[in-house]
Request: fold
Amino acid sequence: QVFIQSDVLEMALDMRNQFDEAEALEHIDVVNTAILCDSEGWLLNNPMGIRTEREIHAELEGAKMYRRLYHKHM
Reply:
């Protein structure tokens, strides 16, 4: 699994574009449709279960967290 997360949209978009192009990986919503994503494919919740200090601070400041989770394509 590869988990990416940022509160900086430009950084998140760059990471997403690079990982989306990797043929060996597929986004979690393809593997598990029960995982909740917004209309742009960003995960609504942190799948790791533990929030980072950066994540806590950003959300307290009102920033959105952009998250994606990828699995190795079987």
The chain has one domain: 2-72. The longest helix spans residues 9-21.
